[in-house]
């Protein structure tokens, strides 16, 4: 990002500039964090031919749209703000539209499936498997934490409870399936996913957006997005569960509470619902905070009822 006081700083190519309203020059990376309805200016100090500039500008916008698919229509509106400009109409005509986005089968978008097992016939099947794999990974993490012992009845009860619920929900595979019910998925009908922001924030400040259904490249990039545990699984959830299992009230553990913390999306099952406090947030890698989240399990939800404490008063006779 380049800034100036009284003049425009030329970029290395010396072809054209995309700037903010205050003449701050931006590039593809900076475009990703622009807020909605930001006004952009096209500055052409070298005045190249209209055709050449249109080609270059179309390429720039293509890269921008790849970073922010949901801004495609806004970019078009921006371009159309000057309807008398022949150059801008040429740019609009050159901006690529992804006609493969809504294709689903391997036959219709073969490139999207490159590198994947041939057993997958649709994009939705691939994305369901992606969500399922993450849930299975969390389940295996629990087994590892328990130092899995098939003779330990307490841990077996927990694992079986989680496994039964995961099977019933098909391992929450609908989270990434754009054809699933809107109340079960984390994306739009077109497959657009929005980052939910850092664990302690309501929204993503950078408006990270991705559509893994668009292309093979975006599908691969989406694999770097995380389902972040707001209450951390390693620092809080699993240690609390292990401690509860070692207590005298192990039979009263609220296993659904721990299941929701480990496997359920906060968007699908809001924290405002005390009976089902979801704990996962889908986040861009830049919004995945690795430092301690400084929050723990709600002790009031660990057991169905708090352990009874009996006070015995002994009367001493005279």
Descriptive account of the structure:
The protein has 318 residues and is mostly helical. The chain is built from 10 helices and 6 strands; from the N terminus they run E-H-E-H-H-H-H-H-E-E-H-E-H-H-E-H. The protein has helices at 28-31, 50-67, 72-79, 86-94, 123-145, 153-168, 216-222, 233-245, 255-263, 299-302, and strands at residues 17-20, 40-43, 193-194, 209-210, 226-229, 280-283. Strands 1-2 form a two-stranded antiparallel sheet. The protein has a two-stranded antiparallel sheet with strand order 3-4. Strands 5-6 form a two-stranded antiparallel sheet. 28% of the residues are buried. Residues 1-14, 45-51 and 307-318 have low confidence and may be disordered.
């Amino acid at each position: 990002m380049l800034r100036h006081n009284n003049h425009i700083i030329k970029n290395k190519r010396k072809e054209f500039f995309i700037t903010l309203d205050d003449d701050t020059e931006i590039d593809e990376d900076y475009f990703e964090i622009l807020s909605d309805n930001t006004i952009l200016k096209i500055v052409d100090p070298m005045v190249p031919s209209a055709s050449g500039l249109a080609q270059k500008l179309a390429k720039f916008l293509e890269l921008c749209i790849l970073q922010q698919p949901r801004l495609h229509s806004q970019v078009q509106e921006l371009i159309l703000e000057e309807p008398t400009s022949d150059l801008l109409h040429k740019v609009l005509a050159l901006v690529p539209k992804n006609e493969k986005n809504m294709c689903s089968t391997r036959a219709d978008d073969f490139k999207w499936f490159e590198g994947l097992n041939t057993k997958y016939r649709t994009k939705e099947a691939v994305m369901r498997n992606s969500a399922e794999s993450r849930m299975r990974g969390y389940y295996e993490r629990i087994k590892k934490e328990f130092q899995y012992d098939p003779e330990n009845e307490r841990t077996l009860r927990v694992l079986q409870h989680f496994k039964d619920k995961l099977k019933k929900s098909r391992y929450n595979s609908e989270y990434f399936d754009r054809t699933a019910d809107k109340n079960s998925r984390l994306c739009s009908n077109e497959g657009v996913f929005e980052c939910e922001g850092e664990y302690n924030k309501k929204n993503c400040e950078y408006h990270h957006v991705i559509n893994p259904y668009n292309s093979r490249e975006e599908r691969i990039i989406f694999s770097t997005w995380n389902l972040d545990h707001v209450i951390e699984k390693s620092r809080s959830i699993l240690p609390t569960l292990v401690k509860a299992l070692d207590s005298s009230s192990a039979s009263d553990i609220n296993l659904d509470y721990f299941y929701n913390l480990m496997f359920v999306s906060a968007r699908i099952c809001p924290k405002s619902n005390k009976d089902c406090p979801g704990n996962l947030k889908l986040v861009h890698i830049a919004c995945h905070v690795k430092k301690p989240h400084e929050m723990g399990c709600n002790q009031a939800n660990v057991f169905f009822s708090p352990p009874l404490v009996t006070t015995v008063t002994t009367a001493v006779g005279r």
